[in-house]
Specification:
heterodimer, A: alpha+beta, Alpha-Beta Plaits, 3 domains, 5-stranded antiparallel sheet, 4-stranded antiparallel sheet, 17 strands, globular, B: alpha+beta, Uridine Diphospho-n-acetylenolpyruvylglucosamine Reductase, domain 2, Uridine Diphospho-n-acetylenolpyruvylglucosamine Reductase, domain 3, 4 domains, 18 strands
Chain lengths: ~375, ~475
């Protein structure tokens, strides 16, 4: 494993490389590693934090927990609520902020606040030739030139190695509380969540998860205490037609529930492959029925389906055509190689993606084969 | 400001190119008469004008694809145009280019309240997107001040913002998918009604690419339910420093207003004379707006007023009803018009870290004396996006050049303090030659590599965004066909 201590050293390592690297942060996100690892975990530290400007600039290898802790000290947070994959994947190691961005990891609040990529203000990275590239900056509004920062988010290290990220942060909510509705089938659950998300009451979580003796709908509201109480009251009235609405008023309990949903805790320790589908919410119930999973969990009002299926299942074949994509999150190497982690793209889009990888990493040394077709690797 | 010399080989083939385009478009969709192409000679950056070779007004994705395929085969540059409201010259043609206007493509294709999106043709205006969903209580959040006229196509090209992006984000945060035609005529679908990109986030790099990667013909946009209500408070201060500190304290207190607008004295004076909004005469004025139910609004404004009082405001005025709210906004919304009454003006668009506000305003004041041109500042203070308005006289020889020089110095200052050249208007031709002040040659190479992939022949809007000296080799590649 190569762990450069600063950006210049990392750039030298890449420029002088004669074989591919597995580009990693904390190695917690479940990408299999057969090549030698190039780790960004040595690029640590918060170089700038201006709470009054809602801005933080950090080395990509900084543990995500360290960033969260610094923000909590000023009553702020990463609004996109990145999940921790360790429980789901059984991985060890320390999740890094660079890994969060490179994998565009967002949690339940994504449905209201936006994804990791939406909070990215700027990046520094080393491209496949060992050049240090800067894009964006540290201000909230910036349309100066092309937005490579967003391109880097979710590129899983295939276009470059992130060395520094600037993020927009938000105030931490004073408190939170939730509603729970039991006994809904998937179709009614998605309609109930749509009603909540389509209200003016700023719902920051809408999930349908295993609980009780079936599945339950969970709706979260955050903010100042009086406001949370008021909005949950209005939501409870509006959702009464779907079933009996239970109030989870206690902040700690609500927070624990959403932490578990964020990390897909209902799947922890259960055997089988795990898939993640990004879909049009109203299509979630039909899709969930088609894939015949052992267990499903809907987040984002149905826009995100977590599915637990028997090992080796080709979930994409079962799902057929749909508006969205399916990512293989947990499986053995044989299944990963056979099915690929990422959803195949239509030919012209795949061609653009391949072109970008070729331009940013002409020698194909960053996570080869991870995002393109296996043949390309 | 320089534009590339028109290619005489293209000018000589005007008739043949027009003929080929007429073969795939309705007769009235190809404009070649010189009196009529003049309508496309500039956008809202009116200081620069050049009629295009031709203008075409397609009505469908298929027609856009046919046009681009033909222009690709003919090696003709294409300049996409939404409503022509760009303040950066994003839609400025060259004499050898075809203007592709999307104004006829303005249909709503699909509205889906359960999944909270709307799909429209890209020529639809920003405000009429909200217009299509407001009966059900929904709206489209990005609200550039040209929203009555500007097209979604242009919003996507420039990644437009607005006054409310502190809470709702800019275009890229509200764009779910596009149908886009590449320069060779290939139609690609990227994103859709689902929330996250599958592979690489191509949507993210398309948004804000200033019409250089493809022509967006359809867009899927996120819609939100309107808040129950909104109300502003007006706070006056006797110094810019104190106003800046107040902004920072409001943000730190955990209240997240939807808008924090800032005006300085020259701007307040001009606005008062023009719109009579009843603003206090002071050094700096903030308009802070919050949303929610009446009780929630009271609570948030209460906190904001508490913070403001600690900074000894000279004025603290809360809107008690709709009419008072409208009066508070009246001056801000008439600010540009008011400055325009005094003289011609140039509107800048740099962004700075909020903490640098007092320093930057002081420096702008000093530069104003040096250049002998007055300047007023309107500012989205919550996100650091400044709009200095420099007054000049277009009829006075040399005044425009002095104004441009002054403007460039302000933008360099924005970069120097950790900000950027443009927060929401785009680079276009206006800030093109300043790009090397913000980015290194290699940073720009990485950006241009994206265009190399989407438009290898550099035919789409080729003379924008990057300094001409930097793009020279790419733009002068041999013409594809004779």
């Amino acid at each position: 494993m190569i762990i450069p201590e600063d950006e210049a050293e990392l750039a030298d390592v890449v420029a002088g490389a004669d074989a591919p690297f597995a580009v990693r942060g904390g190695s917690t996100r479940g990408v299999p590693t057969h090549d030698r690892i190039l780790s960004a975990s040595g690029l640590r530290g918060i170089s700038l934090y201006e709470p009054g400007a809602l801005t933080i600039v950090v080395g990509a290898g900084t543990p995500a927990a360290e960033v969260e802790e610094a923000l909590a000290g000023e009553n702020q947070r990463l609004a996109f609520e990145p999940m921790d994959h360790r429980g789901l994947l059984g991985s060890t190691g320390e999740p890094t902020i660079g890994g969060v961005i490179a994998a565009n990891v967002s949690g339940p609040r994504r449905v209201q606040a936006g994804a990791a990529r939406d909070f990215l203000l700027g990046v520094r990275f080393v491209d496949g030739m060992g050049r240090v590239i800067r894009n964006g900056g540290r201000v909230m509004k910036n349309v100066t030139g092309y937005d490579l920062a967003r391109l880097m988010a979710g590129s899983w290290g295939t276009l470059g190695v992130l060395t520094e990220v600037s993020l927009k942060v938000l105030p931490r909510a004073e408190t939170q509380a939730s509603l729970r509705i039991h006994g809904l089938d998937a179709a009614r659950a998605v309609r109930a969540m749509a009603a909540a998300l389509g209200s003016p009451f700023e719902v920051t979580g809408a999930a349908y998860a295993p609980g009780g003796d079936g599945h339950e709908v969970l709706i979260r509201v955050e903010g100042f205490a009086d406001s949370v109480r008021y909005r949950l009251g209005r939501l409870a009235d509006a959702l009464g037609r779907f079933g009996e609405v239970e109030l989870i008023a206690e902040e700690d309990i609500s927070a624990r529930i959403w932490r578990q949903l964020r990390d897909v805790a209902p799947f922890h320790g259960r055997p089988g492959d795990v898939w993640r589908l990004s879909v049009k919410p109203s299509e979630a119930p039909g899709l969930a029925a088609r894939i015949g999973a052992d267990e499903v969990l809907f987040d984002w009002g149905g826009g995100l389906i977590w599915a637990l299926v028997p090992p080796g299942t080709d979930l994409r074949a079962r799902a057929g055509r749909f508006d969205g994509h399916a990512t293989l999150i947990r499986a053995d190497d044989e299944t990963r190689t056979r099915l690929g982690m990422f959803h195949p793209e239509p030919a012209p889009v795949a061609e653009l993606s391949r072109g970008l990888r070729e331009r940013f990493d002409p020698r194909g040394i960053f996570n080869p084969g991870l995002m393109g077709s296996p043949a390309e690797g | 400001m320089q534009m590339p010399q028109p290619d005489p080989r293209i000018l000589a083939r005007k008739e043949r190119i027009a003929e080929r385009l007429r073969a795939v478009l309705p007769a009235d969709a190809v404009i070649e008469d010189e009196a009529e192409t003049r309508a496309y000679e500039c956008d809202a950056l009116t200081a620069y004008r050049c009629p295009p070779l031709l203008a075409v007004l397609p009505a469908s994705t298929q027609e856009v694809s046919d046009i681009l395929r033909i222009c690709h085969e003919e090696g003709v540059p294409v300049v996409p145009r939404g409503s022509g409201t760009s303040l950066a010259g994003g839609a400025l043609p060259t004499a050898d280019s075809v203007i592709l206007g999307v104004a006829r493509m303005n249909e709503v294709l699909e509205v889906d309240y359960d999944n909270r999106f709307i799909r429209v043709q890209s020529g639809r205006t920003n405000l009429s997107v909200t217009g299509a969903v407001e009966e059900e209580g929904f709206f489209y959040a990005p609200d550039p001040s040209s929203q009555l006229a500007c097209a979604i196509a242009g919003n996507i090209a420039m990644n437009s913002g607005g006054a409310h992006c502190l809470k709702y984000g800019v275009t890229t945060n509200n764009l779910l998918g596009v149908t886009m035609v590449l320069m060779d005529g290939t139609v690609v679908e990227i994103g859709g009604a689902h929330m996250d990109a599958g592979g690489l986030d191509l949507l993210g790099v398309i948004c804000g690419s200033e019409g250089q990667l493809g022509v967006v013909t359809e867009a899927t946009l996120r819609i939100l339910h309107k808040p129950e209500g909104a109300r502003p408070v007006l706070i006056g201060f006797d110094s810019n420093e104190v106003a800046g500190a107040c902004v920072s304290d409001i943000i730190r207190a955990g209240v997240l207003p939807v808008a924090i607008e800032f005006m300085d004295r020259p701007c307040i004076e001009a606005t008062e004379a023009f719109a009579h909004a009843g603003y206090p005469m002071c050094e700096a004025l903030l308009i802070v707006e919050v949303e929610g139910s009446p009780e929630e609004i009271d609570f948030q404004l209460g906190r904001i007023k508490d913070i403001a009082r600690r900074h000894d405001p000279v004025e603290l005025r809360e809107a008690r009803d709709e009419e008072e709210a409208a009066r508070i906004w009246l001056g801000r919304k008439s600010a540009f018009g008011a400055m325009g009454q005094i003289n011609d003006y140039m509107c800048l668009d740099g962004t700075i870290p909020v903490s640098e506000l007092p320093y930057v305003l002081r420096r702008i004041g000093e530069m104003s004396k040096h250049y002998g041109l007055a300047v007023g500042n309107v500012f989205h203070a919550g996100d650091g996006n400044m709009h200095p308005l420099i007054l000049f006289d277009a009829n006075k020889p040399g005044d425009l050049e002095t104004c441009e020089e002054f403007g460039a110095e302000i933008l360099k200052l924005c970069v120097e303090v950790g900000g950027c050249l443009t927060g929401e208007h785009g680079v276009g031709v206006e800030k093109r030659d300043l790009m090397l002040h913000q980015y290194s040659r290699e940073d720009l190479e990485a950006q241009m590599a994206v265009k190399d992939v989407f438009d290898p022949g550099w035919l789409l809007n080729p003379a924008k965004v990057f300094p001409l000296s930097v793009t020279e080799g790419r733009r002068s590649a041999p013409v594809a066909a004779e």
